[in-house]
Structures are given as C-alpha cells and as structure tokens.
Design brief:
alpha/beta; Rossmann fold; five-stranded parallel beta sheet
Length: about 190
C-alpha cells in the first residue's frame, strides 16, 4: 500500500483526490497548506506528496523546496489550475524545484492515477547517482542516441560534440507519448 499525502486548500479537491486514490488501494492523508503538510511528513513516512501550487500560508513551490530539502528521494506530484500569475507559470516551475511530475486541474481520475504511477516508478536514487556521476549521464544519453546519428556527426559519444560545429543533413525525428515510457525505455535497447 502506497502512503500519499494530499496538500490542497480546496476541500472538494482533497476529497475527490482522496476518493480516487483510496479506491485504487492507497493510504491517503490530507493537509490544507504547505505548513501542515510538512508537519505531517515529519511524523509519518510517505511515498508520495501531491501538492497544489497556489495556496494560502505556505504555497506549493516553497513546500516542494522544503520537502526535498528534508527528503530528496520523496516523490512529489505538483497540481494546479494551470493559471499564470503576473506572467509566471508556477506549475511549470515546480519541476525545476524538485517535483517529479505535474498535472493541470481539472484532471480525470485516470490521469491522476497515471501521474501517481509515473511518479512512483521514477528511480530517484538512480537520478541522484546520474547527477553525481557524469560518465553515467553520457552512457544514458548514448542509450537514446542511435549509433548512426553519432556516426553521421563523426563522434564517438555525445561529449565529443562541440558547440559551433554543424553538419547539414536531413533527419527524421519521431516523438511519441507512450504510457509508462520511462519504465519501458529503461529496459529496452535503442
């Protein structure tokens, strides 16, 4: 059973999210703002925090920073109505501050569960190792670059590409959105 904390100042939002998550077999706690959520996180082990961004007292962005400071492997899903305030996309900033995923309100129960599964499947320890070990980063980038592409550039790996160099070639790039892509891609060869 996954232990999830939902932080949102809107009672109806917390209730709806709780109902969806409990129906999926998760244990859910609630908090009305970031301060309350941080206090709960300090006393109760959690697997995932779902936090709204725009809230009174302590908003979601500062909550994310504080949660990650105390537990950098804690998974965080940021949610918000997608509004911008003074031209700032606060939900977009959430991932820069440590959120593992984000979801724009309103969302369906299925979208919520997919986002929760995505967050929980992220190997935070692996991500931390990659950040600390540049050679792993190169190896991971090379897994997703076709050898033919590197050959076309005339380099052995991505670190050999120099800014300013250019080669004019026509290539086709395909982008695809595949459910559980991260898990799938980590087990496949290019």
């Amino acid at each position: 059973m996954v232990r999830i904390l939902v932080i949102d100042d809107e009672e109806l939002a917390r209730f709806t999210i709780r109902e969806i998550l409990e129906a999926a077999g998760h244990e859910v706690s609630e908090a009305v703002n970031g301060n309350e959520g941080i206090a709960i996180q300090k006393t109760k082990p959690l697997d995932l925090v779902i936090t709204d961004i725009i809230m009174p007292n302590k908003g979601g962005l500062s909550t994310i920073v504080e949660l990650k400071r105390t537990n950098e492997t804690l998974k965080i899903l940021a949610i918000s109505g997608g509004e911008t305030i003074d031209g700032h996309d606060y939900l977009g900033h959430a991932s820069d501050l440590g959120a593992d995923a984000s979801l724009t309100k309103p969302f369906t129960g299925e979208e919520l569960l997919i986002s929760v599964d995505t967050c929980l499947s992220i190997d935070t320890n692996k991500a931390l190792r990659i950040k600390d070990e540049p050679e792993d980063t190169v190896e991971n980038f090379n897994r997703f670059l076709p050898k033919e592409f590197l050959k076309m550039l005339g380099v052995k790996d991505l670190t050999r590409v120099e800014l300013g160099n250019h080669i004019e070639k026509q290539i086709t790039v395909v982008f695809s959105d595949i459910r559980n892509f991260t898990t799938l891609s980590e087990s496949m060869q290019p």
